[in-house]
Specification:
- The structure is a single chain.
- It contains 22 helices and eleven strands.
- It has 523 residues and is an alpha/beta fold.
- It folds into two domains: 276 residues, Alpha/Beta hydrolase fold, catalytic domain (Rossmann fold), CATH 3.40.50.1820; 195 residues, minor pseudopilin epsh fold.
- The strands form two sheets. An eight-stranded mixed β-sheet has the order 1-2-4-3-5-6-7-8, with helices on both faces.
- The chain is elongated and about 80 Å long.
């Protein structure tokens, strides 16, 4: 059957197409322009599972390609070929037919198995790999298939030829309603309308059999993928899982097979992450796709992020380097405690904004700049927690490992500006240290640029007050709270301030100044 289904909602500027690849006809949705990213859905879903994620990716300058897998949705209901390596070839031929050689790949559930097979077979063609809530063949799936080992019954049920479709046909609404509800983190995380949509898509013996075809090759998939389990994928890999689904098991299984792994477990989230938590997943994808792979081979864990232009709920940004990458200036244990314990700022901020939907569409920049318009009963909380969140977002980004962007001296327009306003780089560092020494107790010290005067200046703030409250964009800032340096430098704050310049990411600071000159707002 070759058909393109009409979904309830097609995102703006996206269109459905079909392509003949690898002996079958695939339906796919495409929109946006720029570097390609391919999103692969799970079972029992279609491209529509990504409907709330793809607009954010297109808005960041991406060509977003979202196929229906073999046998799903508008793609051909093939009678075979459901091995994940063969399906990877389906997708690869689609990608190459569209004129792309290298892609970013994102896969959920069954789609994650296909994405992993693609990356293993053609590692040079995959720039980044994102796997969302699944366990992979030969990397943790087998125990989950065994009910006697606390696994799930459905694998065996679905794998028996003709059994599941014969029992479920005519009862699709009841079965899929039960299936989705059992797998969600919250019972109302998906609408009844959305669940009925999938029940209609998979209704009938042919559609059900095609869907179960993905499960009927799993034993072969395990044998096929076993050799790859001892090899390490060269590209950066992000693992995202629901706390109430596979949780940390996804990352645990991937760790031996990856050289640059980041992971996040979404609290109170179930299996259907793209539909349960689309905004958080969008933020994670945007940050990961725009993140350079730096630091040690085992990168720091990723947490949900708040990217510029994406509104609340706010979340902790990922470290763009490993915990230990800033040593000997900042030790790994300090970075681990400083970064991972920082989450209380965003949690408290989201809680404060919960009863105020009029504030929930604001970026952190707009929220802080418009603090006077925040209701008085939460203004102090927003100032403190929002300021801490904004300041730390800047702090993580303006540092880089020594020799990998960190340290050295500024160049270009930034160097000229520093010399014009402070006489020399050392003059600026001295003024920075002097201002920090005068800040009693905890706070922050910032290098600001005054667009009206066209000059750099140094200022400090108390507690977690954001540089955004000063009305002038910050180029860089240093955290003067003791938790930022005490484990290594103890009470020797001047020592820490002097050493810190060895991890300042001058190229990024220069980009911030260029952005200000170009009229772009800066955090």
């Amino acid at each position: 059957m070759n058909r393109v289904l009409s979904p309830p909602v097609m995102p703006d500027a996206f269109e459905a197409h079909h392509a003949d690849v690898n002996g079958i006809r695939l339906c796919y949705v495409r929109g946006g322009s720029g570097d390609p990213i391919v999103l692969l859905h799970g079972w029992p879903q279609t491209w529509w599972a990504w409907r709330q994620v793809i607009p954010a990716l297109a808005a960041r300058g991406r060509t977003v390609i979202v196929p229906d897998l073999r046998g799903a949705g508008g793609s051909e209901k093939a009678t075979g070929g459901y091995g994940k390596a063969n399906q990877a070839e389906d997708i690869r031929q689609l990608v190459r037919g569209l004129g792309f050689d290298r892609v970013d790949l994102v896969g959920h559930d069954i789609g994650g198995m296909v994405a992993y097979a693609y990356a293993c077979a053609h590692p040079g063609e995959v720039k980044r790999l994102v796997l969302v809530d699944l366990l992979l063949p030969a990397l943790g799936l087998e125990p989950f298939m065994d009910p006697a080992r606390d696994g799930s019954f459905h694998f065996g049920f679905f794998m028996v030829p003709d059994l599941a479709e014969s029992l479920i046909e005519g009862r699709e609404d009841a079965f899929f309603g039960w299936w989705f509800r059992r797998s969600l983190g919250q019972p109302d995380a998906m609408s009844s309308e959305g669940i009925r949509h999938y029940a209609r898509i998979y209704a009938g013996h042919e559609a059900l059999a095609a869907g179960f075809g993905h499960y009927r090759t799993l034993l072969q998939d395990i044998q096929h993928d076993r050799p790859f389990a001892t090899m390490k994928l060269p590209m950066p890999v992000l693992a995202v899982a629901g706390e109430r689904s596979v949780g940390a098991k996804l990352a645990d299984g991937l760790r031996p097979a990856t050289s640059n792994l980041r992971s996040v477990v979404l609290p109170a989230c179930g299996h259907f992450v793209p539909e349960e938590r689309p905004r958080e997943l969008s933020r994670l994808l945007v940050e990961f796709l725009e993140l350079d792979a730096v630091g040690a081979s085992q990168a720091a864990p990723v947490h949900p992020i708040s990217t510029r232009g994406l509104p609340m709920p706010y979340a902790l940004p990922a470290l763009p380097y490993a915990y230990e990458a800033l040593e000997p200036v900042i030790d790994g244990e300090t970075m681990r405690l400083h970064h991972d314990k920082h989450h209380h700022y965003v949690d408290a901020l989201n809680k404060a904004l919960g009863p105020h939907p009029e504030l929930q569409g604001k970026t952190i920049e707009d929220l802080m700049r418009g603090l006077d318009g925040v209701p008085e009963e939460i203004r102090t909380q927003v100032r403190n927690q929002g300021g801490g969140h904004a300041n730390h977002q800047l702090f993580w980004k303006i540092m880089a490992p020594p020799g990998q962007g960190g340290g050295g001296e500024p160049d270009g327009d930034l160097a000229k500006q520093v010399n014009a306003d402070f006489g020399s780089l050392q003059g600026m560092k001295d003024a920075f240290a002097e201002a920090a020494a005068k800040r009693f107790g905890s706070g922050w010290v910032f290098l600001l640029f005054d667009p009206k005067a066209g000059k750099l200046e140094i200022a400090t703030t108390a507690s977690q007050d954001s540089a955004l409250l000063l009305g002038k964009p910050a180029l860089l800032g240093n955290d003067l709270w003791e938790h930022a340096y005490y484990l290594k430098h103890q009470n020797r704050k001047p020592e820490y301030l002097k050493a810190w310049w060895d991890v300042v990411n001058w190229p990024y600071v220069g980009e911030r100044l260029a952005g200000i000159h170009a009229g772009k707002q800066q955090l």
